Amino acid sequence: LRRRGRRGSKMAANMSNVEDIRSRVLLGEFGVKNVHTTDFPGNYPGYDDTWDMQRFQKNFTMDIVDLDENCMEFDMVGIDAAIANAFRRILLAEVPTMAVEKVFIYNNTSIIQDEVLAHRLGLIPIKADPRLFEYRNSGEDAGSEIDTIQLQLKVKCSRNPRASKDSSDPQELYLNHMVYSGDMKWMPIGNQADVFADANIGPVHDDILIAQLRPGQELDIIMHCVKGIGKDHAKFSPVATASYRLLPEITLLEPIEGEKAERLKRCFSRGVIHLEELNGKKVAMVVNSRLDTCSREVLRHDDLKNLVKLGRVRDHFIFTVESTGVLPPEVLVTEAIKVLMTKCQRFLNELDNTDME
Amino acid sequence: MAGEGEKKPVLEMVQADGADEGCVTFVLHDEDHTLGNSLRYMVMKNADVEFCGYSITHPSESKINFRIQTRGGIPATEPLRKGLNDLSDVCQHVLNTFQVRFCILEIGRSRCELTS
């Protein structure tokens, strides 16, 4: 049971550190301070913290740092943790995908048990755009062309007649002894052959090993894929993972030079601290705090720990989204934002309906 | 306001007898921290709201109790409606900003498809 309501700030707020309390998470030696958002109306005298859409739009920026076909890293600045976390949770659990749900096993003489095989088949990511399909109505056993994808896996292992007599390599001795996800063939139903003529529907990766067979064993399986969300079963999650971290901030309280600067540089991740030559001495400067992993190693050195202030910027989120390949990561992010909008709309409609009664 | 018969309830309002319209507990079905925490943040940003909090009554049931207490006799559905609208507007703005950024990146890589 968790109740979240208004909380007072735990640090004494005087003029000099009010901005710090409002916008930074402080990383101390024994704990982390100022974690919660406190800028609600009434908490800080002299500040107007009422929601102002104009101010939000002025302060909000996004920046896509890195993008390739499966992984994306982007920054969101000026938004609160509650909403950033909502996007992360939706990316993990509420963006729909297609995955194998029903497995009809006509013949399985391999040593992999039926249920284990069905479980493995369900976890294989299926490359089909879930936006073009609908959810299957519960209670309907037979799927139709708008909500089901049918796949077939039919593999029989046999002895290789051309293998040499004294070889012991299974690659040479047997034919079809490894069943890969590339052996799953799409069987279009209804008008799917026309609608998806150029999109080849099937598993995202061809080289996922499903089972191993020996001569005489065979698999004859038909699979039905349906649309679902990660909340229901993790196989429907469209991301390998989606996570965010806050931007670290390292402030040097006084100039650090010489041997101390060398030790300071080793306390942080590579590339964070750079040693500059000034008047013949090496002086430490913070070059790129974004690369730091915030291990707080510097706080373990007694002579360095009071010279540095470690913190995180509370409204700067560095998101990393890695897709399983079903949808490109930028599409996943847009779909996640739309899911949150749909949730709000659902309750707004419900409020309107109850008001009209 | 609660669902009757076959229809599953989506939103219920629970109010103590004798209390004014400003103190209401809303029961949001099929929701969890995803909407609960973000909506709580948007409602707390409203200066008319004296108290706003949510709790998950039991982890096995997917519903949240969302309580709003207003000052000045304002009915509690107003900050709720404003919070939902503001959250929806925030999402729309984030979506627009992201799509603009993505298009700029793609133009920089000399190909652009604006997906809507």
Q: Features of this protein?
A:
heterodimer; A: 357 residues; alpha+beta; RNA Polymerase Alpha Subunit, Chain A, domain 2; six-stranded antiparallel beta sheet; four-stranded antiparallel beta sheet; 22% helix; 31% strand; B: 116 residues; Gyrase A, domain 2; 2 helices; 4 strands; 38% helix; disordered N terminus
Structure report:
Chain A is of the alpha+beta class and 357 residues long. Chain A is built from eight helices and 18 strands. In chain A, the strands form six sheets. In chain A, strands 1, 2, 3, 4, 15 and 18 form a six-stranded antiparallel sheet that branches. In chain A, helix 3 crosses helix 8. The longest helix of chain A has 28 residues. Chain A is flat, with a radius of gyration of 28 Å. In chain A, 31% of the residues are buried. About 1% of the residues of chain A have low confidence. Chain B is of the alpha+beta class and 116 residues long. Chain B has a single domain, classed as RNA polymerase, RBP11-like subunit (Gyrase A, domain 2, 2-Layer Sandwich), CATH 3.30.1360.10. In chain B, strands 1-2-4-3 form a four-stranded antiparallel sheet, covered by helices on one side. In chain B, helix 1 crosses helix 2. Chain B starts with 10 loop residues before the first strand and ends in an 8-residue tail after the last helix.
